Structures are given as structure tokens and as C-alpha cells.
Amino acid sequence: MDLLNNLALGFSTASTPANLGFCLIGVLLGTLIGVLPGIGATATIAMLLPITFQIGDPVSSLIMLAGIYYGAQYGGSTTAILINMPGESSSAVTAIDGYQMARQGRAGAALAIAAIGSFFAGTVSTFLVAVFAPPLTAIALQFGAAEYFSLMIVGLVSSIALAHGSIVKALAMVVLGLLLGIVGTDIYTGAPRFTLGIREYADGLNFVAVAVGVFGVAEILRNLENEHERSVLISKVSGLMPTRDDFKRMAAPIVRGTIIGSALGILPGGGAVLAAFASYSVEKRVSKTPQEFGKGAIAGVAGPESANNAGAQTSFIPMLTLGIPANPVMALMIGAMIIQGIVPGPNVATEQPALFWGIIASMWIGNLMLIILNLPLIGLWVKLLTIPYYVLFPIIMAFCSIGVYSVNTNAFDLYAVAFFGLLGYVLTKLRCEPAPLLLGFVLGPLLEENLRRAMILSRGDASTFLTRPISAGLLLVALAVLVIVFLPSVKKKREEVFVEES
Amino acid sequence: MKPFAIDRTNGLCAALFIFFGAFFALQSLSLEIGTALRMGPGYFPLVLAIVLILLGAIILVQAIRVEGEPIGPVAWRGMLFILPAPIFFGLTVRGLGFVPSIFLTALIAAFASGRMKPLTALVLSAGLTLFSVLVFSYALGLPFQRFGPWLPSWLAL
């Protein structure tokens, strides 16, 4: 049994005391920052990313990063339930019924249901990742430059399809991200490009600086727009354990949510968000009491939360096997891998099995830690919600500055933080979502390299992308996605979904 | 005919994309373009830059004569104090050293909110500095000079 051997390798890697410790710190820090209102999972990870580089070992640092991710997601659900302020769009659905449950004095139960649902979904989808990752890796190993190029096109196009608002804007954001990504020295000729003569940017713009700027700083600025008092609903969360009746009512939604989430999470471009929405509408449809939805339905918390977490987990599949990020968080993971000297892609599984399976095993361990730790600690997280925002952001800015500077000891990275903070904020104000930009930024150099290599291999014949069957198939998928998004009926439906959300 | 009107949000957005496209296009032209077979360093970015300009143009066309939503409040004060904070840290961390630099960085950022009182800001920055020095400098052992060469040497601990 290869699967069992691999999982055993993974668990023995992930459960060394040091790695367990890093996972624990990651989960705690992730929840700590993620629970701060208005700061979503992506921003949390961007801010904490530099800390993980202080660990020398890439396995430990990626395990910690994964821990931060789960923690941040759970933290986001906590704020969604307690103060109706989802940090991320994927927990926006949880806020609908979770907040209503909290208002009815059932905050504890809502939080516990979210945690239990997430844990179940996490367990199932971790197993799915372990089952599906190796065969996909085997396929990916057959890929040449043309296939990689086409695959990245699929990824970028799907990220556009799932972005909010105008499709043209999202497309422009991708292109801008690609351009920003290729700032630095050209790998073939060594010519410096777009560095404005600044030697410090010869290695390209620092990925951490871009992520912290576009997500972290821009988010702080947005929160500073109108500082109104947050009303924290509950000072004390009691009645944590769901009743027997609650359990009965949450079981089926959790299972359905897990299935929906696992399937949709693999989609590039934000499967977790879609999964949460899909699960909510499915639950509403199959429910015998649809009128309860929006007024504190248990299924409305259990389903989307499970879907959300399952989707978050399975989005690791394209990242681990193909080196293609499915969402901004995976883009951050890939950026972290590159900084650690690991080339993301199908070779990771064969060349670094301990890393590959260690991350998969740590997913489950991270989920377990979340449920063991966070249920008792909910009281503490609730207290954090009462810290005024103006106290928080000087702290965040200071830590971001230290963190970004410590990656390369390069002051120019800090100037890039300010620039990208401004750019990210301006673009958000102009209703352009930053996620496609970050995906473009990560994929820019890879896309160019594979394009140039494919063209050299085919002796300058661009039809190589269409004559190679896998590449042609992938490009067809990309085209189909674009066509579907522009179809009038889909366009309308898409707008409805995003309107509902905001 | 209706008077000329433009949706301000999308107009600005288009202008921004066209500006970036033009910047990258002009810069690409000074690089070797090459051919489709052997692409030079300027080939791919030039193509992307032209696409970006075109997308900007599409957004611009869409913006004309469409009533848009207003941009909404802008965090001017936030930008004025938040954005300089990392720049200040970058400029001074070597010269002043880690301790004064991070203290002042936090202090600058603290004033981004109208609700912050000067005394609170001082106490917060001081506490933050103490914590950062303990965690980042002593515990994690980041190679920061705690007090830099711009300060009199008797301060260097």
C-alpha cells in the first residue's frame, strides 16, 4: 500500500516535536491575527509569512505556514459569527446565519458547529489530497513547456472568472500582475528589466513585500476609512457544546458541504468562496424549513463552513502537484517555497517526499489542533475583539516592517511595501480585486519562461500550443471558461451572487 | 445629445492601467525585442503591455456616459501616516539602529487614526519596541544592530 506508506512518512515528518510545535505556533498566530476584524486570511498569511522564513528548515516553515492558514480561516469565521464581520469572502456566508445564532445567545454553539464541521471536512479532504495528488503528479511529469504555459493560462482565466466585479478589470489586474512579476533580470540574457536603474530590484520585486503591501497595508487603509465603533455582541460565550438536537441537524449539511467543497476547491481562482455559496444554496433548497435561513439556521452555518474548509484543503492539490496556485493563499505558499529554494511542481513529490507528505499530514494535524485548542480558547479570542483598531494597526505595521526587512535585509523591499500598499488601496477603491494581480505576479516569470522555451522547442511555430493534445485541451478549457463567463445569463447570475455577498 | 459624462471610478481605473501599460511598453522598447523564435527580454513584456493598454481603453469606453457609484471615503490621513512608516524604517534601521527606528516607525503609524491620543501612542510604541527587541533581536536572533552609528557610541549596548 503506497498510500499508507506515504501517509506514514508524512505523519512521521509532521509529528516530530519541533514540527508539531511549529504547527501549533502557526495555528495560534493565525487565529490570533485572523480573529482581528477586517483582516482576512490572505492578509494574515501575508503578514506572518516573513516569520516563517526565520525557521531554517523548509518543511517546518511550510508546516507552520499551513497552520497559519487554518488558524486564520477559523479566526475569520469567529469574527463572522460574533460581530458579523467576515474577514474573507469565504466566511461571508457563515456570517448570515452564524451572526443570527449569536444574537439568539447561541454563539458558543455556532462556533462549535463551525469548528466540528471544519474538522470533519478537513479530515475527509486531507485524505482526498493524499489519494489524488500522486496520480496527478504522474500526469504532470509528462508536461512540457507548452503544456505548462497552457495550464497557467487556465489558472489565470479561472481566477478572473471567480473574481468580483468587472471581468475586464480582473483581466487587466492579471496582466498588470504578470508585468510586475517579470521586473528584474532576464534569465536568458541577464538584461535588467523595469528596475528603473535600481540595483536592489535586479532580483525582481520581493514577493513578500508585494503581498504585504497589496493585502496587508491596503486592508489597513481601507479599515481606516471610516472608524466606527464595533459593537461586540457577546462578552461571554457560554453553552459551547451543541445539543443532541444540534448534532442531528448539522450532520447531513456537514457531509454535503464536504462533498461540494472538495469538488469545487480544486478549481483555480477561489474555489473555497464558491464552495461556501454553493453549499448555502444547496442547504436552503433541500431544507424542510427554508424559512429559517437568514434567521439562525444551523445548516446555514454547518454546510458552508465545512464546504469552505474542504475547499481550502483540496486547493492544495493543484499547488502541490502542478505548482499552480488555485487562490491567493496558495500563491503565497508557492512564493514561500521559491524563497526556500524549492521549485514548486510535480518534482516536489518525487524529490522531496518528506516535504510533500509532511505538508499533507500537517493539514490534518493542524485541523485537529484547531478543534482542541480553539474551542477552549474562544473566550480569549472574544476578548481580542474588544481591542480598539487604532491600537492594532501600529503594531501590525511595525511587525510587517520588521518581517519584510528580515527576509533579505533590503531596505528597498520596505519602499516596495509602501508603493504596493498605495497601489493596492487605490486599485481596491477603483473596484479592482487584488487577488488576480497576485496570481499574475507569481506566475509571470514562469509563464514567460515556458512560453519562450516552448517557442524555441517548436522552432518559432506558435501552433505547438494547439498541436500538442494536452496543451490544446487545456487552452480549450480556458476558452470555454471565458466564453461561459461572458454569456449574458451567466454574467447576470454571477453579478447576483456577488451582490448578495456584499 | 447628453453632455459628456464619465464614470469617475472607471475613468481613473482606465487611466491607471493605460499609464502602467505605457510605462512597461516604453521600457520594453529599449530592450531587445527579438523574434517569436528567439524572444528577447522585451518581447513578452511588450505584448503584455499592449494588452494592458487595450484593456484600459475598453474600460475607458465602458466608463463613458455611465452613471457610476461614487468612490466613497478615502483614508487620506491613513495614507499620510501608514505609508511613510515602512519607508522610515527602511531609511533608518541601519543608521539609527533597530530600537529607535522601530519605536519611531510605530509612533508614525499610530497617528494614522484620529482617535489615537499622544500619550497612548507613546506608551504603545514603547511597549511594542520592548516586545520586538526581546522577540526579534534576542529570541529569534535577527541580525539587527540595536543602536546604529548615527547615535553617540555610549548608547550602544
From TrEMBL, chain A:
Entry protein name: Tripartite tricarboxylate transporter permease
TrEMBL record, chain B:
Pfam families: TctB (PF07331)
InterPro entries linked: DUF1468
Domain of life: Bacteria
Name under which the protein is recorded: Tripartite tricarboxylate transporter TctB family protein
